Amino acid sequence: MSDLNRKWLYLIVLSIIWGTSYILIKKGLEGFTPIQLGVLRIIIAALLLFIIGIKSLRGITRQQWKWIAISGIVGSFIPVFLFAFAQTQIDSSIASILNSLVPLFTIAVGYLAFRITFNSNQLLGVIIGLAGAILLITLGAEINPEQNYWYAGLVVFATICYAFNANIIKSKLYDVTPLGIAVGNFAIMLVPALIILPFSGVFEAKVTGGENFLSSLGYIVVLCVLGTCIAKVMFNKLIHISSPVFSVSVTYLIPVVGIFWGVLDGEKFTLGQFFTGGIILVGVYLVNKKKKAPQI
C-alpha cells in the first residue's frame, strides 16, 4: 500500500477510535473520579505497551529520551486528565468537537516554535475546518445552555498540548520507531501515575464496591487498548509518513464519530450540526490538497 493510501486509512481508523474515546471516558467517569480514571488509563496502557513493545526502546539515545519525555507529558499525560475533568461538565460530543482546534494550533506551533512552513491550502483548510467546529460548538451551546463552558477551556488547552506533541514527533523524533515513541512515552508517564495512584482513592471501598465499578473499569480497559495503545502507535506512524498538520486533521473527523455515540447515549443533536460537520470535511480535504506545479 502506498504512503498516500496508508495515511488516509490511518486517518479514518484513528477518527473512529478516537471519536469513540469520548463516550468511553464518559462511561468511565460513572465509576471513577477524573484523577482515578487518568491514572488507571496510564497504568493499564503502559503495561499493555510494555508487553508488546519493550524491545523497541533499544537504541534510543539520551537526547531522544529527553524529547520522548516531553512528548509523553505534553501529548498524553496532561491531556488525559484535562479531558477527564472537562467531561464532568460538558457532553462527550462537545469535547470531540472542541478537539478540532488541534490543526490550527499545530500550524501556529509548528511555525513559531519549530519553523515548519505551511502552504495557503493548508491554512485555508484549517480556517474552514475551525469555522465549522466553532459553528458546531455554537449550536451545541444553544441546545445545552445548562452546560458549564468554562470547562471547555480544559479541552482547548489539551489541543494546544497535542499540537506541540505532533511537531515534537515530526521534528525531533523522526528516526525513532512509532512503537518506540509510544512505549517510551508511557514508560515516563508510569512513574508519576504510580505515585498518584495510592492517593487517588481508587482502592477505597466506596469505589471498588460501587455499582458502576466493573462496567467503568471495562470501559477504561477498552479505552486503553484502542484509544491509547493501538491509536498511539498508529498516530505516530501517520506523523512519520505525512505532515504534522495532516496528522492532526484526524480531529476534523472525530466530531462526526463522537456526536454519533453521543446521540446513541441520549445527547441532543440537530440537522444543523450535521451540515456543519460537512464543512469540517471540506477543511480536511484542503489541508491535504497539494498545490499544482506552475505550468512552464
Q: Share of helix among residues?
A: over 70%
Number of strands: 0
Radius of gyration: 19 Å
- Residue windows where pLDDT falls under 50 for at least 5 positions: none
Strand content: under 5%
Topology order in helix (H) and strand (E) letters = HHHHHHHHHHHHH
Mean pLDDT: 84
Give the helix tally.
13
- How does the overall form come out from the CA principal axes? globular
Structural class: mainly alpha
Question: Major sheet, described briefly?
Answer: none
Distance between the termini: 32 Å
Question: How would you summarize what this structure contains?
Answer:
The chain is mainly alpha-helical.
Account of the 3D structure:
By secondary structure, the protein is mostly helical. Helix content is 76%, strand content 0%. The chain has helices spanning 3-28, 34-53, 62-86, 92-98, 102-114, 120-143, 152-172, 178-196, 205-208, 213-241, 244-247, 250-264, 271-288. The relative contact order is 0.22. The model has no long low-confidence stretch (mean pLDDT 84).
